[in-house]
Amino acid sequence: MDACFLTARDARRMLLSRGTVKLNLDLRKTNRTWEVIREGDEFIFPDGTRVERNVIERIARDEGSVYFAKGGGVYKAAIAGEHFYKLVPTIPPTIEINGIRMHRTKEINPLQDTRNKVNTVKPKEGETVLDTCMGLGYTAIEASKRGAYVITIEKDPNVIELARINPWSRELFTGGKIQVIQGDAFEVVKKFKEGSFDVVIHDPPRFSLAGHLYSEEFYRELFRVLKPGGRLFHYVGNPGKKYRRKDLQRGVMERLRRAGFVGVKRVEEALGVVARKPEKKGNS
To answer: Is the pLDDT of residue 239 over 70?
Structure first.
């Protein structure tokens, strides 16, 4: 394995061990276990990395983070820059930016949240999907598992770096059916030819962070790159109070209709809106 991943729960199990402890070290992406050997106040990981007890004690106290052992060192799966980014040990992990989680994690896990979104447009074998805002790539991976070829866009290089670390995101870079483009979706989408995609899944950051991705101008671009009959899912989310969410959804739906979309309707379980591009005239 590339790296051995640890959560606070794993660290506590290590501290309770007397000799060898078997742990899942890929954040439960598989059911496999690996042996971590304790020698006095050191723990030895499968790749030979040795970690002092005091480091494991520190990890055991940090419930909200993911750590990984690799190449002789232990690192927090986090990046500090203009913003603070980190993986959070939900299963599968979500990403937190300045304390805001990028997936729904209350009463639902990020994988089910992803499936709810993808199920609204049901990508099929051989179709081409545009995923406008990659994040950790779960949407792109889920669509590719259904046989689609996926182009996914991510603006933030720090998010791409965390996806490269996260074992649940590995298929983004290894599967061959997903192309990752770094850039702002608002600009990248302009470069695609008309009618390039069967499906668009648009899951932007909240409106206050990326208002341009909720604009009629952007929706017209999404309409342009869809094939006739193509399907769109637009995640709107649940920002604040109910009346505010309804206002935001209503505005989204009105702008989608003005951009040419038909069949525009809410999908409550996915906290979003579906729409489609009309078939060409003369076709059923």
So the answer is: no
Half-sphere exposure (Cβ direction) of 132: Cα atoms closer than 13 Å: 27
Half-sphere exposure in the Cβ direction for 86 (13 Å, CA): 20
**pLDDT tens by residue, 265-279:** 999 889 999 999 999
Verify cis geometry, omega within 30 degrees of 0, for the bond prior to 92.
Answer: yes
Q: Which of 84, 74, 86, 64 is nearest to 5 (CA)?
A: 74
DSSP 28: T
**Secondary structure of residue 49 in the 3-state scheme:** coil
Question: Which residues partner with 87 through β-bridges?
Answer: 95
Neighbours of 258 (CB within 10 A): 11
pTM of the model as a whole? 0.92
CA pair distance 209, 172, nearest whole angstrom: 25
Structural tokens at position 103: 């997936």
For residue 1, what pLDDT band results from cuts at 50, 70 and 90?
low
- 124 residue type, one letter: K
- Rounded distance, CA 175 to CA 282, Å? 39
Secondary-structure percent of the chain, ordered helix, strand, coil, rounded to 5 = 30, 30, 40
Residue-wise pLDDT for 18-29, tens only, equals: 899 999 999 999
Q: Which contacts (CB < 8 Å, 24+ apart) does range 184-191 have? A: 184/153, 184/155, 185/132, 185/133, 185/153, 185/155, 185/213, 185/218, 186/212, 186/213, 186/218, 186/221, 188/153, 189/130, 189/132, 189/153, 189/218, 189/221, 189/222, 189/225, 190/221
- Distance, in Å, from the CA atom of 254 to the CA atom of 20, rounded to the nearest integer, reads 61
Tokens read off for 41? 């106040």
Residue 94 dihedral angles phi and psi, to the nearest 5°? -110, 175
- 204: which DSSP letter? P
What 3-state class would DSSP assign to 123?
A: coil
